[in-house]
Every structure is written in structure tokens, then in C-alpha cells.
TrEMBL record:
GO CC annotation terms, alphabetical: cell surface
Protein name per the record: (Atlantic silverside) hypothetical protein
Domain of life of the source: Eukaryota
Phylogenetic classification of the source organism: Eukaryota, Metazoa, Chordata, Craniata, Vertebrata
InterPro entries documented for this protein: Stereocilin-rel
Species for this entry: Menidia menidia (Atlantic silverside)
Amino acid sequence: MASNLGTVSAQTLASLGNASSGLSNGQIGSASPSVLLTSLPTLSSVSGWSQGQASIIVGVITAGGFQADRAPALASLGSLVAGLPAAAMQEVPASELLNIISVDASPVQVVQNVPDAMATQIPPRLLAFPGENADISVMNRKTWTSSQAAMFFGSLEKTDFDLDE
């Protein structure tokens, strides 16, 4: 359905809701900054964004004046925070980053919300996955410290999964 749309409007995004992740990169990139900024509450709650889609949305809203330099602004990105360039995240004070990480303290969401290159900054206590399954493809894209990786291996030995996957 999303692929059949022409112009992307705030109404379209509100109607699509979580299905907005079915829009193509071209459709997302052609939306105006004002449409995406108006739709940010909806877009930030969509769970299926690819890294590319999130990057495009963040790029468009940043070009439209959105500044992701404080915890409230970063938190408003929700699932889109993964599209924020690591260089932009490095400009944010560590205390602000901790506020962002703690928005949803679910380890799976923490890992998903933090940009790949910033994963080394996630405190180990936020990386325990009791009763939750992490997306291995998301985990593989991240940069990890040796102590973080060792913690994951400890968890993996208790996990039943298909090694061929």
C-alpha cells in the first residue's frame, strides 16, 4: 500500500502509522521537512525503520531546522535516533546520552536506539537480555568493546538458536 502513494503528507503518515516503514527511501526523502517535523510523534514510534530510512528522515528534519543537541530533542526522535550520525552524537554531553538511553531501558531498545558507532558507550548493565531476544543483525552492525562482547558470549551459551541463520 505504501509503495503506491504519490506525495507524502502528514495525513498520509498519520494514516499509515507503523506501516510508514513501508515507504521507499525516495518517498521519504521527497517529503518536506515541515511534513516530517509535524509527523515526528508518529514517525518516532515506528519500530520497523531501516538504518537508511532513519538516516534520511533525520537528514530531512535536520535540514529543516531540527537540532538534536539535547536529551529532549534526541528522545523525541525515538526509533529514529538510529539515523543520527555518530558525529552528531559525539557532540552531545555524556549525561544527555545517558538520559536518551534510559528513555526505554529495555536492553533490546537500548541497542536498537543507539547509533552503531556509539554502542561502545552503552553501560554493560544495560546490555543484559533476560527474557528478551536481541536481533542478531542489529547486534552485528554495532561496534562493541571486548568486555561488552564477552558479556554477550556469556549470554549466548544459554541461548538456543540456529547457527546457520
